[in-house]
Design a protein that fits this description.
Blueprint lengths: L2 H10 L1 H30 L4 H29 L1 H18 L6 H33 L6 H44 L1 H4 L16 H12 L2 H31 L4 H21 L1 H7 L1 H21 L3 H33 L1 H30 L4 H18 L9
Helix pairs in contact: 2-5, 2-6, 3-4, 3-5, 3-14, 4-5, 4-6, 5-13, 5-14, 6-10, 9-10, 9-13, 9-14, 10-13, 11-12, 12-13, 12-15, 13-14
Length: 403
């Protein structure tokens, strides 16, 4: 690609490029925060129970706040809420090293978990709106660039920052990264067009949130998307959490080999999200689902029956591709539904599926792995994906049915 063609492409895709940079920056900050929180807690002498509470505290905010924030985004628009969430989270990161106790760290990270949906629902809303204009071919870019920052870039930066600046300096750098996202965000958030039917700005009461949530869940397509996203996140969380233990305890490979399994899972998933949007748009949702569920099922069977570390790799790659194909379709379909029901509300609901799937994949997978063996849990996921595959073969109606 020559300079003129490159400039033309950048001009035509300016929003997408800036959005990808912003999403990767936000994902990187999440990756840095997760590693730094775990290492800092250990340095403070946190026990296993406190470490578990730290994880739960970060998830709790997303579960509680995603839906209400989605409603607020539909009324206020995303820009002010994104800035508010960034300021509150950034200031809290500055406070973390002030009191060096596990309890204070837990309080701060839990508070940040409640602030982060202000950022992520806002950005998700913008992206869903833009997918409808750009086409489904770019549907996986947000999740791909965010995950690239979180899993591929953030952990290494966290270790380097801690080594160079200590924990206090790392928390301050994290806080500064939130200021940077505020500075960049107008280039993305200014494209938002507030719906004409948004109405008067009001704070959503718990009763109203409950009623509107039930109304959202009456949409058959949205229910299906949520269930599929929970299944995707459950498997992805189990894989990235426990494949290291499987590599070390079952196949007795070194730490580098175990880490490669995690990296391979992330790379195949992220690459599929980035590269297959055009393919899924041409194939259509049903065909893409069938291929994705079939590949995911095959990957799980490979992983569950692998007799050695070399046999794990086909499963790792095929599983990542299958999950990526299915995820690309769900994101595109969610954007379509958001155009009917409200992008903020739908974005908030979709955001909730990730922690729910993460909890199921982590806790249920760990519970089953303790009793059946960690590798056998892959086989337990197979019926779930076979059922999802069968559902696509049975359906004779269109995928956008809302009854």
């Amino acid at each position: 690609m020559n300079a003129i063609a490159l400039n033309g492409w950048l001009g035509a895709n300016r929003f997408l490029v800036v959005f990808a940079l912003l999403a990767s920056l936000m994902g990187t900050s999440v990756g840095v925060a997760k590693i730094t929180t775990a290492l800092y807690a250990i340095a403070l002498g946190a026990n296993a129970e406190q470490l578990g509470l730290l994880v739960a505290g970060q998830v709790a905010g997303t579960l509680v706040m995603s839906i209400p924030i989605g409603f607020l985004v539909d009324h206020y628009g995303p820009r002010r809420l994104f800035v508010l969430g960034s300021v509150l989270a950034g200031l809290t990161y500055v406070l973390i090293p002030v009191v060096g106790t596990p309890a204070f760290l837990l309080g701060c990270t839990t508070a940040i978990g409640f602030f982060m949906p202000l950022r992520f629902v806002s950005l998700n809303t913008i992206f869903f709106e833009q997918i409808r204009r750009m086409g489904a071919g770019k549907a996986g870019w947000y999740r791909a660039t965010h995950l690239a920052g979180q899993f591929l870039i953030g952990p290494g930066i966290a270790v380097a920052l801690i080594h160079a600046l200590g924990y206090a300096g790392t928390w301050w750098i994290l806080a500064a990264s939130f200021a940077l996202t505020i500075a960049v965000s107008p280039m993305v958030l200014s494209s938002y067009a507030r719906p004409a039917a948004a109405g008067t700005v009001v704070l959503p009461s718990p009763g109203r949130v409950g009623r509107d949530l039930l109304a959202l869940l009456r949409d058959r397509t949205l229910r299906e998307i949520c269930l599929i996203d929970i299944a995707i996140e459950s498997v992805f969380t189990y894989q990235t959490t426990f494949v290291v233990a499987i590599a070390l305890q079952v196949f007795h490979v070194g730490e580098a080999g175990a880490s490669a399994f995690v990296t391979g899972t992330g790379l195949s998933f992220i690459a599929t999200l980035l590269l297959t949007g055009g393919l899924t748009a041409r194939l259509g949702a049903r065909t893409s689902y069938r291929i994705g569920f079939f590949l995911a099922t095959a990957g799980l069977l490979f992983l569950g029956s692998a007799a050695g570390p070399g046999w794990m790799w086909p499963g790792i790659v095929v599983l990542g591709i299958g999950l990526g194909l299915v995820q690309t379709v769900t994101l595109s379909r969610a954007a379509e539904i958001g155009g009917r029901l409200g992008q903020g509300k739908v974005s908030g609901l979709i955001l909730m599926t990730f922690p729910i799937g993460g909890i199921l994949g982590g806790l249920a997978g760990g519970w089953a792995g303790e009793r059946l063996g960690l590798q056998a849990v892959y086989i337990l996921f197979v019926p779930v994906f076979l059922a999802l595959l069968a559902a696509q073969w049975r359906r004779a109606d269109g995928l956008n049915t809302t009854q």
